[in-house]
Structure formats: C-alpha cells, structure tokens
Amino acid sequence: MVSNDSDDSAGSDNSAGSDDSAGSHDPDDSAGAVGAVGVTQVVNPATGLVVATVPQTTAAEAEAAIDRAARAYGSWREVAPGDRARLLRRFAAVVDAHVEELAELEVRNSGHTIGNARWEAGNVRDVLDYYAGAPERLTGRQIPVPGGLNVTFHEPLGVVGVIVPWNFPMPIAGWGFAPALAAGNTVVLKPAELTPLTAIRLGELALEAGLPPDVLTVLPGRGSVVGEAFVAHPAVRKICFTGSTEVGTRIMAGCAAQVKRLTLELGGKSANLVFADADLARAAATAPYAVFDNAGQDCCARSRILVQRPVYDRFLELLEPAVQAFRVEDPALETAEMGPLISAGHRKSVSSYLDGAEVAFTGSCPEGPGFWHAPTVLLARSPAERHWREEIFGPVVSVLPFDDEAEAVALANDTEYGLSGSIWTQDVGRAIRVARGVESGNLSVNSHSSVRYWTPFGGMKRSGLGRELGPDALHAFTDVKNVFLATDA
Ligand code: NAD
C-alpha cells in the first residue's frame, strides 16, 4: 500500500505545495500535502523531498473499516484477560525489536532527531508493556447493600477512534491504542496526513505480534474525511483526540449528538517560572531544551519564560550561550538536538510571530534545503503581545519579568491554556503554593519533565478534557456497570 521513495528519487520539492499547511493549525491538515487526489506524498522535512506515497482512506473505506472493527470487538472483548495481556506483551516485544527501524522512519517522515525518535518508539513499547498489566487487574467493586449482592464491572466501550497529530506520531498513537486495547476495545487510528508512516508500520507490527485482524486498524487520510467518519459513525463509542484546540472543539460538538465519550489533548502555552532564589545556572541551561526540543512542536513547550526582576538580566546572560550552543542540524546525526519544522507552511507561520517583535538573540540553523528555523528568544514588552499569547508551536520563546509570587501566578494563568509548566525555586513552600496556584494539568519543580507513562497526563481549561497515561486513562476506556443480585427471594 505504501510505496517508499528514496530521498533522491521522485524528489519533487514540497516547499511550494506545503506553504499553507498544518502550521497555521488549519482544521484540515491535508493542505500541507502534495500529490494527486486520494494520495499523500510524504515529505522529509530535513530535505523537502518526497520519501513515500500513501493512499488516503476514503469515507466509504473508513466506514467499512469501522464496521469490521465493531465485529472484531465482539470476540476481542471475550478474549481471556491473561491472553489479552500476553498479546499486548508480545506486541511490545515486537515493537522493541523494531525500535531502530521505527526511529529511522520517524526521522525521515517527521524530522525528529534520531535520539528523540528512539525514545518515542521505546515509549510505545513501554506503554504497551505497562497496559499489558491491566486486563487481569481491571476489577470492579462489591458495594454492601441490603437484600442482595451489588457489584460493578468495568465494561469496554466498543470501537475507539484515535486521532493523532503530526508532532508526536508514535507516542500519541500508543497512548490511545494501548489502554483502549487492554480494556477490551477495538481501535481505528488516524495518523496526521503529514506523518502517517510510523503509525502504518505499528499497525503491521500489531498483526505480526498476533493481534487478530481488525482489532487495531490504521487508516491514513484527511481529517475532514477519516476523522469525521469516526465522529459520525455510531459504532465508534469514544474519540481519543490529540491536536489543536480549534479542531478539538469541533470534534466535541460533533460527539455531542451521540453523547460519544471523548478525551481531548489540545494546545498549550506553558510557563517556565524562574524565581530569584532558583539555581539560576541550571534553570538557564535547561530552558532551551524545555522549548526547542522537537523544534518547539511540543504541546508541553515552556514557551513563556517568566523571570523575577532581580535576576532577569543575569538569567538572559546565562540563557544566551545555552541557546547558541543548541545543536540544530541533520536530525539523523547522533549529535543533533533539534531538527527542522514539519513543513514550509509551518515555518512561515512560526516566522510570522517575529514580525514587529523584539528579538533578544537567536541560535543558528542550516540554510536549507528543508524547513529550518533558528531557536529564537523574544523579549515580551507586554503580556498583550501576540507571541506571548498564542501557541507558536516552533522554536520561539518569549521572556517577561515579574515582581512577586502573586504576579507570577497571575501571569502564568493569564492564558486560555493549562497544559504544563515549570517552577524554579529553592523554597519548598513556594514551590507547593505556586504549583497549587497555576492552572495546569502537569507541573514540574526544578525540572522540565512532563511525561511518564505511569502518571496521568492532560490539560486544564482549553488544553483538554480527561487524562491519558497512568491508571486514570485505563478507566476512561470503560463504562462502569452496576449489577444488583437479590438474595432474599
Ligand atoms: P490538528 O488539530 O490540525 O490535527 C490533529 C488531527 O486531527 C490530525 O490527524 C488531523 O487530520 C485531524 N483532523 C483535522 N480536522 C479534523 C476533523 N474535522 N475531524 C476529525 N479529525 C480532524 O493538529 P496538528 O496541527 O496535527 O497538531 C498540533 C496541535 O496538537 C497543537 O495545537 C498541539 O498543542 C496539539 N497537541 C496536543 C498534545 C496534548 O497532549 N495536549 C500533544 C501533541 C499535540
């Protein structure tokens, strides 16, 4: 189905075709792709060259695949918990054996650094392994009631539709399908149109591991066709969506008609709060990673740095060499810390935030070909500036001073988003107070880490609804059924 063209073959330059692509958070990312109707030509963002051609699933094909997934659900939910666990462990083992292959594929498809891509493939393995422990432990409760026995069951939902963005194609797919399958659901999965290759490969590996056909089906194609088919089809009982707030709210409205279950992981504009008593050297040395990792195409990017006024100048002095040392180069190189942006259109969108902004300093990046953007630090003259308020989703960070703790929390919360954030201070009491005060689903103190597969992940406010990962996510793929059995008859 997928033909892999080498970088130097067909080689059409995608830069013109992708000018109006996903970067603008176009509700339908298809605009970023080139090629004949019904076909996506997948482009390597580091070279601008076509690496593969992928047929797009039609609406009729999506509906037929959902019908097959609904039939497969009838038997998958009856698979004994121990057998379902063994199949998921085997799937994890097969992914483990293909980590290098998946990572190299992701480098070509998404421009991720090879180091990050290895972590991402390994994360799918780990998430599968983690949820393989779930089927035998998915127990209900016995609740004392007079006159009988009252028990609860965690019932699977049916078919789950997982819709994935282009920025982390592998982990976000795994965060959806692993708990959904463990809980006894079948899954239809739509990768982003720009980045379908690793998801397609994961679907093949699932079959290789012995998962029955139609238990996990990968359907590449357009959001407005395949994604909307998931929302419209009554057999799809839950949508697990990660992407922009704009598309997420539209999907939420679509799900309302059928009271369809929904998890939303949406945009972010997270704060990195640096107090005067912080380990300033460490805060400055790690700040570039917190926003430039994955070229800033990270919903958790700490793209607003708030620095307490007495250390503001010193922090910028320390930040500048750290930004300039950040290695932006061919993502296939082991030394690369940052690769290109996903498309020419996205680069144009990111650059637009520099118009009229005060640039403090920049790092460097290759000239091209490919969709490169240098790491850039902007000084916010006021919190009203566009680059301070909007999710840029690129290697651009804004810095603003603050005076006291109350102002820091107020500025951190002055956004429609609430996904993650960091707090740098040596004062434990302040760390707790600020962590309780900031409206975000995930916060780290003296660290930038956001994601561990065994802890919950998700957003507050317009960053999302529900939680992924950890034990909470498993229950979100079930409905609780209460059964009362009379004993006094
Ligand atoms: P997007 O919303 O444009 O697309 C996401 C997915 O939705 C794609 O597969 C797309 O094809 C599909 N889609 C588009 N229109 C649709 C429709 N009408 N119906 C159903 N599906 C449709 O997002 P993107 O540009 O791919 O990804 C970037 C966004 O994702 C950023 O806002 C980022 O913050 C967010 N994100 C959030 C998280 C999180 O966990 N909170 C993680 C990663 C990315």
TrEMBL record:
Q: Give coiled-coil spans as residue ranges.
A: none
**What InterPro entries does this protein's entry cite?**
Ald_DH/histidinol_DH, Ald_DH_C, Ald_DH_CS_CYS, Ald_DH_CS_GLU, Ald_DH_N, Aldehyde_DH_dom
Q: Where is the composition biased (Low complexity)?
A: 11-21
Mark out the compositionally biased spans (Acidic residues): 1-10
* KW Oxidoreductase (keyword) present: yes
Q: Which CDD domains match?
A: ALDH (cd07078)
Domain of life of the source? Bacteria
Domain Aldehyde dehydrogenase, which positions? 40-483
Q: Where is the active site?
A: 265
PROSITE patterns in alphabetical order: ALDEHYDE_DEHYDR_CYS (PS00070), ALDEHYDE_DEHYDR_GLU (PS00687)
Entry annotated with the keyword Cytoplasm: no
Q: Entry's PANTHER family?
A: ALDEHYDE DEHYDROGENASE-RELATED
Family assignment from sequence similarity: Belongs to the aldehyde dehydrogenase family.
Descriptive protein name: Phenylacetaldehyde dehydrogenase
